[in-house]
Task: structure prediction
Amino acid sequence: MSQLYVGSEVGKLKRVMLHRPERALNHLTPSNYKDLLFDDVLAVERAGEEHDEFAKTLRGEGVEVLLLHDLLAETLAIPEAKNWLLDMQVGEYRLGYQFAQDVRGYLQTLSDEELAHILLGGLSYIDFPLQSPSMMQAMHERTDFIIDPLPNHLFTRDTSCWVYGGVSLNPMAKPARQRETNHLRAIYRWHPTFASSSFHTYLGEEQRDYDNAMVEGGDVLVIGNGAVLVGMSERTTPQGVEALARSLFKHGQAKEVIAINLPKHRSCMHLDTVMTHMDLDTFSVYPEVMRKDLQCWRLADAGKGDVKVTEVDYFLHAIEKALNIPQLNIITTGGDSFEAEREQWNDANNVLTVRPGVVIGYEGNVYTNEKYDKAGIKVLPIPGDQLGRGRGGARCMSCPIEREGL
Result:
């Protein structure tokens, strides 16, 4: 019987959740793409085709692909789940009492499939077919959003991440992404695939204000052997790392958390944009960011709910010790300094390992892919001219929910 368990970054990948870009990308425009955390507008049809190639490549490797849209629509078929989600996403304090009632009444008339499209892709005033007595319609432009689109759902890695025998429903850093977590909260609570399974929830089981304790899955690497590697980036805070570590230890799901202090800029918004695990002893690293002088700490379970924090001299030494490996094999981004910077920006280091030594990455990163090949790492190439414009590669676009350990 399959189970919800992710024991490593490199063990055989069995089941994964993706989100095919659709309605939300149609709502991405030159006037709003920065607020929605993209660097450009995308060619929607081409982005969908590229994503289909990604899913096809995964299925070709024997990986079961679950699509977020389907999971959400199937969850909305459960009345309790639908009511809870509408309470969260169309509340009276978000839209005002009267307008919330009118919008909710309209959404209740839609099929589960249509409602999933709107919750994921947004609803503008121009698409709302009713006239409300509320002030809201008169005070907004027709192209304003009643429900904001969520194009970053494309990057399923961040919103929730499975770590050993449980999941963290992540408190997201940016307002443009915070509603995403409610969709995953509903899916993991009510969808039959998850409701019938036993797993731990580390963060986010209940709706609460996590204040400064923020975590995003792109910063969380389950490196195996009871160890978790976490980057403290512009999206994941020390408070978030400590909260996650305490919960992992409380549930007996990890022995140690290695936390690295990353520069706070967009080119390395998450740890997995500058470092990923490719084989038992092999990591891909962008050396301009992953320098030896980065501050690093080891968090360990001190018992009775306490955490022992120790600063360590070098993150690679901490990883070697955690994995009981004498020396790691490091493959740096390919090309000269200009080519390497360009390829890192285009997610050359953000690969998804499907089994030891076999990874999926964008075909356009020719210099880095060539280095991987020469080092014995097989790259399964996928197109990414459009998908990469959201600053995320194959690892960012995938949420493993079942993977073997080391």
